[in-house]
Each structure stands twice: as C-alpha cells, then as structure tokens.
UniProtKB/TrEMBL annotation:
InterPro entries in UniProt: Methyltransf_16, SAM-dependent_MTases_sf
Coiled-coil ranges per UniProt: none
Pfam (any one): Methyltransf_16
The name this protein goes by in its record: FAM86 N-terminal domain-containing protein
Organism expressing this protein natively: Microthlaspi erraticum
Domain of life, source organism: Eukaryota
Length: 379
C-alpha cells in the first residue's frame, strides 16, 4: 500500500510528502519521538485513525529492516500518545504491540555483542529537482546500510555519523565535482559516502579504513547496494583492478608513503576524522602523501592514472574535503597547527559550499548547522 493512499481527504501534495517523511524516518530508525512528531504533522497535530493505521501497516507491519526492538518502542509510544489524548487505539495496533511484547527481547544482545541492524537512508530530492544530475527518476535515493547502534562503545566505525550524512548530501548536491574523478576516502566507516560517490559516477572510488571489522561491514554494505568492488586483501600480487570501487585496509599509523603515492586521487574525502589528538599526526601524514603530486607518472603502474588537465595543459589541483563536527576545540586547534606545520592550506567552505539540497528533511537527529566543511590543499 502506498503512502499516498493515507492522504485521502488531504488535498495538498505536501500531505503526501509528509507521509513519505514518516516512513523514511522509521526506516532510518530515527528517535521514536521524531517519528510520532512527523506523523502528527500529517494531520495538523492529532493522531488520527489514519495515522495509526499508517504507522502500523506501512511502518511496522511491513517493516523491511526487521528490527523488532525499534518497532516495539514506536508502538508503545504511539499507544501512550493516543491514550494521553483520550483517543481510541486501533485494535490492530494493540494486537501488533502484544505480538512484539511476547517475542524474546534482543536488546541486551544488541548492546553486548554489537549485532548489526539495517537502516535505510532515504535521500529525498525536493520537487523541481528532477533534472538534477544525481536525482533518480523516483525522486529518492534509498541506501540500505548495515550498521551498529552502539555508536560510542567500541563500534564507532560501523555507525553512521552526522558528517558522513553531510558529506553524502554534499556529493549528491554537487555531482559535477566528483563525476569522472578518482576519489579517495580516509576513514570510510560504513561506506555511505562511497556509495554516493559511485551514484554520481566517480571514475574511481577508493574506500579505506584501519579496522578490519569495519572494513568487512563496509563491503557488505557495498554488496547490499549492488556495487562490485576490488578487495585488496583477497587480491593476488600484480592482479589488475577490475572495478571502479576498491576497499583498502589502511591504518593511518602504518600507511607507507610508497603505498599511498600509488593511488594519486583527484579528490580526497573524510567525514568526522578530526576526533583523536593522538591520531592527528598520522592522519595529516596520510593527507600530505595523497595531496602530493608526483613529478611524473610511474610507467607501467596499475594503480596510477593521469589526472584531468586544464586547458593550459597543467594538471588540476588535488583537494581534500573534510567534514567535521568540532566537538573539542583543543583537538581542532591542534589539527590546525599540524596543517600549518605540514605546509598545507585549509579553507572553511561551510558557507560557500553548504549543500543546497536538503535531502534528509525527515531526519531530526541530523543537525546540519553543527557541521563544518573544509578544503585542504598544498600551498
């Protein structure tokens, strides 16, 4: 059943899009309060039978992410909200909640063993943007992401962080910056940015992470999104690259300059990589090696490619785009000092290149205003 079927009697197109926002928020596992708030917005503030039926039948009963714990929390909050308003809860909603209550609880297992769940991140292109190069015919790009709920306790690489959402919006908003370019991401985590780079037709997408479990999860996400990739760990020495997406195990502490010099990207990206003071020297060393342009091409190398050239015959400059929430001023200031010491130039592009398309309007937990976008280049 389509979301628009629940907007019967609501004449505006906006009403239909509001129901889509509710479904998108549920599939992205937004806080249940946000889902209920969006549902209220569909009917001017009240939780009608229509809203209850939508949350039950479309969001919970037909849920494709299979996270029973989250569905149970939503149903409980829905019942509480309706009862507080002295409304009548639909029998189907009570029955669905009873089914979830009788099922074995897996919440403790989820926290203890870092079991992965699937979020569906829906990038919703606003009306009037259907001619935009990255806009699908349906007007939405839905990306299933296998990730962890345990964001702060040892499973950070498998979580979806705000800056990765911002950088994904940035890629989708400015596809011409990345199309036909070789893109290299440091600290790719769950792989959301890389999937968006593949969507806008980047010539090569190199995704890296220093944690092997995170890298394994990233590869599963690429497979979920029907992207073929080269696996460096399974590749025989001298074997040629066959696909434009590549996964690399790259601990910053041990990455050699000779290895990094082979990749020669046009664009480097990083989301929320400015977080640990002890890691910053290693991160900057990696960035310097990737930003440095070799004097000449290494003939016969399978990893090197000529960069795009300008009309005057010179190669276009290499640039790194780093999106970050500034959580600790001292850590960020230390990063700026290291940037200067390594003879790099950093520019705050937040105002100039803020993604013009708000593709995640339903995601109340995502605060775009808290994120800054920087470009880093050689002086």
């Amino acid at each position: 059943m389509a979301a628009s079927e629940y907007s019967t009697g609501l004449e505006s197109v906006e009403a239909e899009s509001q129901y889509l926002h509710v479904l998108s928020a549920f599939l992205a596992m937004e806080p249940v309060d946000s889902v209920i708030s969006l549902a209220r917005g569909c009917t001017g503030g009240s939780i009608t039978d229509n809203v209850q039926r939508f949350l039950w039948e479309i969001c919970v009963k037909s849920a494709v992410n299979g996270n029973a714990s989250y569905a149970k929390k939503l149903l409980k909050r829905l019942i509480n909200e309706v009862e507080l308003e002295n409304g009548e809860v639909l029998d189907e909603v009570y029955e669905e909640y009873a089914l979830h209550m009788s099922a074995p609880s897996k919440e403790n297992i989820l926290v203890k063993d870092n079991i992965r769940i699937t979020k569906f991140i829906s990038f919703l292109f606003p009306d009037g943007s259907y001619e935009h190069p990255s806009c699908p015919k349906s007007g939405k790009l839905v990306i299933p992401m296998r990730c962890s709920l345990n964001m702060f306790e040892g499973d950070t690489g498998c979580s979806i962080w705000p800056s990765s959402l911002f950088l994904s919006e940035f890629v989708l908003s400015y596809p011409d910056l990345f199309a036909n370019k070789s893109c290299f991401e440091v600290g790719s985590g769950a792989g959301l940015v890389g999937i968006c780079l593949a969507h806008v037709k980047a010539k090569k997408v190199i995704l890296t992470d220093g944690d092997l479990l995170t890298l394994t999860n990233m590869k599963l996400n690429l497979e979920r999104n029907r992207l073929n990739y080269d696996d460096e760990l399974l590749k025989e020495p001298g074997e040629a690259q066959s696909t434009r997406v590549k996964c690399i195990h790259l601990p910053w502490e041990t990455a050699s300059e000779s290895k990094l010099s082979k990749y020669r990207p046009d664009i480097i990206l990083g989301a929320d990589v400015i977080y640990d003071l002890s890691c910053l020297p290693h991160l900057l060393r990696v960035l310097v090696a990737l930003l440095r342009r070799p004097a000449k091409r290494e003939s016969g190398s399978l990893e090197t490619e000529d960069r795009d050239t300008a009309q005057d015959g010179r190669s276009s400059p290499v640039v790194a785009y780093i999106a970050s929430v500034i959580r600790n001023a001292d850590t960020f200031n230390a990063f700026l000092v290291l940037v200067d010491q390594m003879d790099l130039s950093i520019t705050d592009l937040t105002g100039e290149l803020k993604p013009p398309l708000e593709l995640l309007p339903y995601m109340h937990s995502y605060d775009r205003s808290s994120i800054r976008l920087f470009s880093i280049s050689p002086r």
